[in-house]
Amino acid sequence: MTVVRLESVCKSFGGIVVADDIDLELRAGEILGLIGPNGAGKTTLFNLICGIHRPDSGEIWLRDRRLSRLPVYRRARAGIARTWQHIRLFPTLSVLENLLIGPRDYPAEALLSRLLRPGQRRASAEAARARAEAILSRIGLSEARDKIPGALPFGQQKLVGLARTLMNDGDALLLDEPMAGVEGQVYETIKQVVRDEAAAGRAVCVVEHNVSFIRDLCTRAVFMFNGRIRQSGTVEQLLASEQLAELYFGGGGPGGS
Amino acid sequence: MEYIYTILILIGLYVIMASSFNLIIGFGGLISIAHPIFFALSAYVSALANMHFGAPIPLAIVLGTLFAVVMSVMLSLPSLRVSGDYLLIASIGFQLGFVEVIKNVDFAGGAGGLGNIESMYSGPHRSLAWIVTVFALAAVAVVLVHRVTSGEYGRAIRAMRDDEECFSSLGRNAMAIKITIFAIGSGLAGLAGALYAHYFQFLSPDQFGIIQSGLILTMVVVGGMGSTWGPVVGALLLTALPQAITFLNLPPSIMAPVQGMLYNGLVLLFLYVRPAGLVAKRARQ
């Protein structure tokens, strides 16, 4: 079932086309790999879906809801969660507090309702806290709950960034290079979380340069270059494609990784 | 004795001003210089509501405060839609513009000022009643700012200031938070202004100039930006200090520049030596 649908989405900055007539579907329970060299427009595509950029033309749908004109926060509340390539944890908040910013209905977002309905606020605050604790224990970071992000190793920060988006509990999960700079136990944990989230019925889209990660997790992948989707299909088809090798690695055939 | 009472009242009013400005600039990270004009607008509305429309003084003070809240939304709603920096530019226009408006409205006394404002209290214990009122409301203001900036709402404010784009992408409405804290801060400035009007019983538009922004900012910076008690200490110190140097008996032509240099010097000194202010925020791990 299609969760997120992009229809002929175009976007350019000045004269530079960063999204050129993009049609894309993210399906429930599926992990879609988004690959392509740096500057291909992968992160821009995430920015278009989550609302940081508005498309020049085309539409973006979440199920039957049109997202294209909604501001960023309304799209997140509709169920679009994303991570960032550079993690972007809130540096002055503890790990647990970072997660607590993430639920779709934040306890007492409206100050007035906080004052008028304290009981409801307390209930939703407690529910959010319980969820955050559960997520931290699932990724093995319960011990770090009261630390500030800067005190954690890079890989664990990456995990916290992923955990924060899980608080959204929405339909779509956009992961921007979740594996960059990550290895060992954290690598395995992230892989497991991504798998579990898809199994829970979420539509997951992963931007990743790590080919083995894509091969292990994704059933389908699209290849982007210069703001266009050049090819899509199974991961095997894409990796075997000569066109991809040429554009990705500059002609010499697949190199490393 | 009356002189000491007046200084105490001023300290109380500046505690409200500095705490509320700290909410806006220190906690919210919103750069505005229009704080004195909300003080002034509320002072005038409260005085005029009482003088011309017979509103009882407590009601007039509430009306003035609400007027400041409404005006703050009129400033913040359009300017925050674009980007944070526009608030500063718009606030300069707002501040300078409304001082001129007040000067040119005869109804409000014009450039000569508005006199004969009724005091809330009379009789022999008038000053004491005022001190109790102002200190109680100053305490309420400090507690309110503390409540807003702690708990879930405070956490959201901190996250917003850390990284607004990321904050929005998690489903949080940064705009609503900014407008809310700007309105609360400006409303408190309005409360201080209305109290001022009915205590001093005279308002002159020149009192509410851009210089006042500098003074309040100095209180916040010296006291400690983003801490609850910092502005209280800053207000106390910077209200008492200029009074202290009046005992030097300098001629007025030297006095004013000396005070100005004092404020500027203090800001520079603190930014270099102790940027966190006298009351530094509690550090985390």
Q: What does it look like?
A:
The complex is a heterodimer of chains A (257) and B (285). Chain A is an alpha/beta fold. Chain A has a single domain, classed as P-loop containing nucleotide triphosphate hydrolases (Rossmann fold, 3-Layer(aba) Sandwich), CATH 3.40.50. Chain A is built from 10 helices and 10 strands. A 6-stranded mixed beta sheet of chain A has the order 6-7-8-3-9-10, with helices on both faces. A 4-stranded antiparallel beta sheet of chain A has the order 2-1-4-5, covered by helices on one side. Chain A is globular. Chain A starts with a strand and ends in an 8-residue tail after the last helix. Chain B has 285 residues and is an all-alpha fold. Chain B has one domain. In chain B, helix 1 runs antiparallel to helix 10, helix 9 packs across helix 10 and helix 9 crosses helix 11 (252-273). The mean pLDDT of chain B is 90. Classes of the chains: A alpha/beta (257), B mainly alpha (285). Chain A binds chain B through residues 50-52, 71-73, 76-77, 81-82, 84, 88, 90-94, 97-98, 100-104, 106-111, 114, 121, 125, 146-148, 151, 164-165, 167-168, and chain B through 148, 151-153, 155-156, 158-159, 162-163, 165-174, 176, 180, 284-285.
Features:
heterodimer; A: 257 residues; alpha/beta; Rossmann fold; six-stranded mixed β-sheet; four-stranded antiparallel β-sheet; 10 helices; 10 strands; 39% helix; globular; B: 285 residues; mainly alpha
